[in-house]
Amino acid sequence: MNARGLVDFINASPSPFHCVAEVTRRLLQAGFSETPDDAEGPLPERGFLCRSGTVHAWVRGTDAPASAGFRLVGAHTDSPNLRLKPSPAFAKEGYALLGVETYGGVLLHTWTDRDLGISGRVVVRGDRGLETRLVRIDRPLARVANLAIHLDREVNTKGLVLNKQTHLPPIVALGSAVPVETLVASALHIDPKALLGFDLGLHDLQPATLGGLNDEFIFAPRLDNQASCYTALEALIAVAAGQRPASTAVMALFDHEECGSGSERGAESALLGHLLEALAEGPLRRALARSFLVSADMAHGVHPNYADRHEPHHKPMLGGGPVIKTNVNLSYATDAETAARFRAACADEGVATQDYVVRSDLPCGSTIGSIAAAGLAVRTVDVGCAMLSMHSIREQAGADDVAAMARAMRRLLAGG
Q1: Closest C-alpha to 109, from 77, 69, 82, 137
Q2: 294 closest CA partner among 258, 260, 249, 329
């Protein structure tokens, strides 16, 4: 439940599918059991269900949810990146390239001049029908090369502007087009003809690490939002290892937040509601009225070189503790009651809190918080750890914030 643990978690999770696989590995190790999302009958005391890049897990409370409610922590497994198109291979000017599409709000220039691997999932025809397999190619296959400054003398004064269609396809070889099926088949040791579908993206090969003079920082890809996934997971496992709480504790990690959550496994779907209904042991309406959700996503820490981009009196610091995120137009779901509840839990754990609101003259981002709050009619607070370089290929956060957030989540999941 610390920064080094988060580094290991991120290094195991180059895609949302790998993130779910790492979460489920750790849940199984902690004594949780997997349940199909269409299972009939009572659910186990400690269990989880998966659907592709989404995983939900729970620890049943001693009291029925109809009387004690649910304590939920939600986050998302996906991160902005470059995803391969269905027929990505093409050749141009003597180079083999791969067609890519931007997933989420990618900070485009950070993906240039990087050693990139390929990861995700594929569907293959096996002896028992269609099978889904994870793919991770951790060697420098692809590179989005920058144009030399000699050919663009104004790049440092007017800025680098990248066209998503024409400038982002990475180079993978010299010569003719290289089918992605060939690359994947070689990695999986299968016949390329057996590969019938894929969800693949590029990932940075530089591993996550601690950094700074005193290791006070985390330098890593996908901190948004695997950091929240990790702290939620550690908190739930800690609850399962302790005295069984009165309320049922639930961790909900969703796919597709970065592109709007509108899928069969995103926060806008009915998947979590179906699970809560199965756990409710009585009227779900009553259970939800007694419930509380912590929506955990990363927060904008103040940047020393761009401090004017922050609201002057709300400048969260890396290492300063969990950030409570508020927006009166409900891009965040926080209100006075839910903020107070989170602050109280943090105070009980000896954890400091910070506040964030966007400048009044800037637009505000969004999270799963308001989506889940509206869909479930459950009281919700939006929180996160402060970070820099959000949506870059390499992001930065405070090392001490990891344990602080995990402790606050554990307190809330245990009924605090």
Answers
A1: 82
A2: 249
| Structural domains of the chain, ranges and CATH numbers in brackets | 3-79+221-413 (3.40.630.10), 81-204 (2.30.250.10)
Q: What is the pLDDT of residues 230-241, one digit of tens each?
A: 999 999 999 999
pLDDT in tens, 316-330: 999 999 999 999 999
Q: Residue 31, SS3? A: coil
Is the pLDDT confidence value at 8 over 80?
yes
CA distance 83 to 222: 15
pLDDT level of residue 134 (50, 70, 90 thresholds): very high
Predicted local distance difference test score (pLDDT) of residue 374: 96
Cβ atoms within 10 Å, residue 58: 27
Cα–Cα distance between 332 and 415 in angstroms, integer?
Answer: 23
Task: Tell me if 188 sits within 8 A of 118, measured CB to CB.
Answer: no
Please provide residue 161's backbone torsions phi and psi, each rounded to the nearest 5 degrees: -115, 115
Tokens at residue 393, please? 């290929």
CA 175 to chain CA centroid, Å, is 37
